[in-house]
Specification:
Two copies of one chain form a homodimer. The first copy, chain A, is of the alpha+beta class and about 140 residues long. Chain A has two domains: about 1-85, Winged helix-like DNA-binding domain superfamily/Winged helix DNA-binding domain (Arc Repressor Mutant, subunit A, Orthogonal Bundle), CATH 1.10.10.10; about 85-140, Dna Ligase, domain 1. The first copy, chain A, is about 40% helix and about 20% strand. In chain A, helix 2 crosses helix 4 (about 50-65) and helix 3 (about 35-40) crosses helix 4. The longest helix of chain A is centred in the middle third of the chain and has 13 residues, at about 50-65. Bound molecules: manganese (II) ion (2 copies) and zinc ion (2 copies). The structure holds a DNA duplex (30 and 30 nucleotides).
DNA sequence: TATTAAAGAATAACGATTTTCGAATACCCG
DNA sequence: CGGGTATTCGAAAATCGTTATTCTTTAATA
């Protein structure tokens, strides 16, 4: 995995830097779908000198070489995901967390849409909104 | 249809103004899913004095009284749709147009997700992106 | 038609995200 | 090891859809 990103960076003419590896590691080891600020914060401990600008530029590159997908979950900022598989997401409108949704055959849906619309689809985003299990517990008073 | 919006505005304590009717007419008579700027532009001919701020405020009201839905098609701005049925959208990454996708049973998909996750879902947003038939012809992307 | 509160026009302001800038640093190739 | 140059840092600035403001106009009611 780390080997993969190193090769991909070099192979695309990008230098391999600790910052780039670190940003990718954050995304590869979380299921939280962080935005740029969250990535930046989580690197403060290990990379106190990391610049937010570097996070943004690194994400651009990681996206360009196919290692990171960009999520628009209807918030002000973008979220990022190193899981490049075709899966949907659900955002809790109470606490803001974004979880994976794997119980959806996205490829099948895509095929149906492609047949119906005559578009050649290159991607898709499914977002669901609701209340996560934890917030349901806390908000019993509803 | 115009009768409907008039009643709804009055019934909700809003005044019926030419601007409000005009904004709704644009949305009711197009399939282009315009954003605020596009609505504003398309009204320049008939309402040269229309303010962009009025477009925004009117959309708020139309949304509030259930006449317009707000779309997040993965762009910087929101798009609006007077078709209140539950349907998905597809955006052409070449020319930016946004088309309807009626070949998707969103309610069915939502039920599946709700069963699989433990979220209590309150809404969803699907959008697909790809290359529309016309842009495929022009070979902008082979 | 007069009254009055709501609404519109025009434009300034907003504000969080994202980008830019220039000097310092460090990756990488030979 | 160096030299060349991509990259980083840090702060500042831009971005830009949307909202607030101020003054003017208008819809609704009787
Ligand atoms: Mn994910
Ligand atoms: Mn539509
Ligand atoms: Zn929650
Ligand atoms: Zn197109």
């Amino acid at each position: 995995m780390s080997k993969n990103i190193t090769e991909l960076l070099r192979g695309n003419g990008f230098k391999v830097t600790p910052q780039r590896l670190a940003v990718y590691e954050v995304l590869a080891n979380t299921k939280e779908h962080p935005n740029a600020e969250m990535i930046f914060s989580s690197l403060q401990a290990t990379y106190p000198t990391m610049s937010l600008a570097t996070v943004y530029k690194t994400i651009d590159i990681l996206h360009e070489i196919g290692l990171v997908q960009i999520l628009n979950a209807g918030e002000d900022s973008f979220r990022y995901d190193a899981d490049m598989s075709n899966h949907a997401h659900v955002r809790c409108v109470e606490c803001g967390r974004v979880d994976d949704v794997f119980d959806l055959d996205a490829a099948k849906v895509t095929r149906e849409i492609e047949a119906g619309t005559r578009y050649r689809l290159t991607g898709q985003q499914f977002y669901f909104y609701g209340v996560c299990p934890e917030c349901q517990k806390q908000g019993k008073a509803h």
